[in-house]
Amino acid sequence: MKIEIRYAKLEDATRLVEIYRYYVEKTAITFEYEVPSIEEFQQRMIHVMEKYPYLVAKVDDQIVGYVYASTFNVRAAYDWCVETSIYVDHTLRKCGVGKRLYQALEKALKAQNITNLNACISSPIENDEYLDTNSIDYHHHLGYQMVGEFHQCGYKFKRWYNMVWMEKFIGEHQENQLPVIRFKEIKDQVNLNEVA
Q1: Residues of the chain above pLDDT 70, percent
Q2: Average confidence (pLDDT) over 23-38
Q3: Which residues contact residue 173 at a Cβ distance below 8 angstroms, ignoring those fewer than 6 apart?
Q4: Looking at residue 52, what is its pLDDT?
Q5: Which residues are bridge partners to 82 per DSSP?
């Protein structure tokens, strides 16, 4: 299966909402209750793309997943940290799409001088039909480490779920840290499909 990674466009929102709909309606992977409208989703994309990369994966000219980074915390000292989010068409999980998306995202974020990736992941008290530990296991596999857990903080489908934070370092932490560059300023210099 040939996977192509490219920058997201606002007109992709219809397909991205289709992918996201499954996770909102059928899982507790996201704690969102309602599927956002196309317009709301586009506004979210615009907000992310002001500073960070927003990427999509295509197979046979069909978008099959997306990944993006967002602000971890608005305070200036957190500038080198981002929160990552990824969603893959549920029929194509465990096919390598997510790994390729994350590889491309990390490459783009390194070019911005980002050092820390943080993932906020819903966690089951016990595995059920809406949530298991697959996302946590997947992030472990990609090199993320567990940071902490919040207990029974998410309520969906009349059940309580935990939430964990995981982190991964992709850059060096130095005394004289290079400033973070807005991604739109360097996006033409990053080849998303060149895998290390």
Answers
A1: 99
A2: 98
A3: 115
A4: 97
A5: 71, 117
Please give the mean pLDDT across all residues of the chain: 96
How far apart CA 144 and CA 132 sit, in angstroms, is 18
Query: β-strand 145-156 against 159-169: which pairing, if any?
Result: antiparallel
Other beta carbons within 10 angstroms of residue 191's beta carbon come to: 11
The amino acid at residue 142 is: L
pLDDT at 93 > cutoff 80 = no
Integer Cα distance of 192 and 107 in angstroms: 7
pLDDT score for 114: 98
Residue 124 CA neighbour count, 13 Å, CB half: 15
* Beta strand pairing call for 145-156 and 54-59: unpaired
Residues across the chain: 196
pLDDT of residue 106: 96
Residues β-bridged to residue 161: 154
| The pLDDT of residue 181 | 96
121: exposed, middle or buried (Cβ count in 10 Å: 0-12, 13-18, 19+): buried
* DSSP helix/strand/coil, 191: coil
Q: Where are the beta strands (DSSP E) in the chain?
A: 4-7, 54-59, 62-71, 81-88, 116-123, 145-156, 159-169
